[in-house]
Each structure stands twice: as structure tokens, then as C-alpha cells.
Amino acid sequence: MTAFLVVLVIILFGVAVMQMGKIFKMSRQQSNTSEIVNDKDNNTQGWLMLAFVIFIYVLCIYSFYEWGDVLLPRSASEHGVGIDQLWLISMIIIFVVGIITQWLLHYFAFKYRGRQTQKAVFYADNDKLEFIWTIIPVIVLAGLIIYGLFTWTDIMNIDTEDDPLVVELYAYQFDWRARYGGEDNTLGEANVRLIEGVNQLGVDASDPYAQDDVIVNELHLPKGRKVIFKMRSQDVLHSAYMPHFRAQMNCVPGMITQFSFTPTVTTEEMRQAEEMKDKVQKINKIRTENNIALAAAGEEQLEMYEFDYMLLCNKICGNSHYNMQMKIIVEEEEEFNAWMKEQQTLAAVLKQ
Hints:
The protein is an alpha+beta fold. The chain has 8 helices and 10 strands. The protein folds into 2 domains: 40-65 and 73-116 and 123-156, Helix Hairpins, CATH 1.10.287; 165-269 and 305-351, Cupredoxins -  blue copper proteins (Immunoglobulin-like, Sandwich). It has a 5-stranded mixed β-sheet with strand order 3-2-1-5-8, with no helix packed on it. Strands 4-10-9-6-7 form a 5-stranded mixed β-sheet, covered by helices on one side. Helix 2 packs antiparallel against helix 3 and helix 3 (78-111) packs antiparallel against helix 4 (127-156). Residues 162-342 form the Cytochrome oxidase subunit II copper A binding domain. Keywords: Copper, Electron transport, Membrane, Metal-binding, Respiratory chain, Translocase, Transmembrane, Transmembrane helix, Transport. It comes from Pukyongia salina.
């Protein structure tokens, strides 16, 4: 492999030298003739500019029509409504400004294309115009930034007065674990140096608060109750990404990061939403078509899709990054409490 790379570098170097020789040769040639653009060329380029901006608009409209249904469904968390609103306002401004400026750019290139009978006017400056096209973006961007800061502050202001549920999300190559605080709703101390045997999260077994901790590989959340996530990483930088809840936070080795939200839509309620039913039906239609081809080839067929909330890693953390996901189930609080009673505590697991 090394020899191949050396030969490749030598060949590329030779090609570069040959091209440089051609450039020097052309630069030494004297020519008294020059190619002058005529009205026909300018007309062609002007009409092409006008056609291109129309093509952009048609492509944009078609993209929304064809793939508009692949966007995320309604938010399943309280703060997600604010994020969606901020995103919508930003997109509206971007599209309005983009449509206007693209049209002006291409239309002026068409209207003021070069002509033999027309001479360009030299326009040195215009303080009024420069002030207008400077102050308008400043005002719009300042408004968006201030609005975004207030939205972010509301999201990150974690209020602990409502008895929030405390859950740890533990990331490692290439999987997730969740740890609940148990009956006291308080997580025990943990350190990666304490990882040994079944204690995969490095929880300090001598900490009284750790005795009733519950470690699971499927995240359950109660609807309508705030959840504070404490996030840790065992090895590299991961990112806890829960798109349906509009939540994302980096998991950094050696430190604890946190994020909180209140789930508002159970898994079953989201499955029954008409928008989600259409998406599931579309996915399963594609899988059914693929299964026909797989069956003919004697290969394993795809399972039919059923919607579930997912916790994903949104950082490229290694070869199996694509497989780093954990199912999230949002349910009524009574169902959540019943599920919690079925789980083994850390003390019970360590005794086995």
C-alpha cells in the first residue's frame, strides 16, 4: 500500500510539473487578437440567469410537495413548542429574504445584460442605500438572537420545585444505559474507575443513595412530569439526541451535563396520530416492496415498522455510531410507577 501511494504521488507530481510547463508556455506567447463578447452571448447568459432562478423556485416547491411529510411530527415536550415556533419564524424569514434576493440577483443580471448600444453607469456610492441594506439585517438578526436567547433561557432554567424525576443517561461505545434514582429520587455517586463486572456504570456501591438506583436499557418516562437528565460519557464525546422531544445535549467524558423537559404525548398517543399513521404506512409500504425482492433472493426480510421514541447519538463516535440508540417509552404516571416496581435495584443486582 505504501509503495502504491509513493508511485501515485510521483505521478501526480509529474502531472503538476507538465501543467505548470504549459502555463509558462502560454504566458510567453504573444497574441494581438482577443475574444470580445457580443450581444448574442450576453442575451444567452441573461436568459439562462432568468431560467435558473425559475428552476430554483420550481425545485423548492417540488421538494416541499414531495418530501414535506418527512419532517418531524408535532413536539412531544412542553419546551418543544417554543423551539418549533423559533424554527418556523427563522425559516419564514430565510425563505422570504431568499426568494426576494435571488429574484433581484438573477433579474438584474438579465435586465442589465451587456449591449453594444448601452453604456454602464458608474455609481460610486449611495449612503442612504447602504444604510438601509445594513440596518435591516442588523434589526432582523438582533431580533432573532434576542428571541432565541429568551427561548434558550426558558428551556435551560431547570426548576426543581415540581419534584422532577432524575434520570442519568450513560453513553459508551456503542450503547446507552439509563439510571433512575429509585424511591429517594437521588442518584448515587459514580466514577468510571469503579466499573467492574455487572457494575457497568461505575456506581459507588458504598453510597447509601445508590442502593435503590435502577439501571435499565430501555428508557421509560411519565407523561406530564418534568425529567432532569444527568448525562455522562465513559469514553469519547457523545450527544444525547431525542428529536421528538426537541432535546439534545453533549455527553462529555469527565463531567456531568444536564438537560430537562416535560413529556406531553405518550408513545401510544403519538402512534394514534393521523400524521404518524401516514408515516408508518408509507415506511411499511417501502419495506413490503423490499421484502418481495429479499424473499426472491433468499435473504432475511425486514420487520414491519412501529413508531417508538428514540434516544440517538448525534456525534460520530466510532465505527458503530449508527447503531447507538435506545427506545424511549412515554406512558401515564400510573403505568410508569408499575414498571418501576418491576425493576431490580442496584443493591439486588450486586448481590446476585
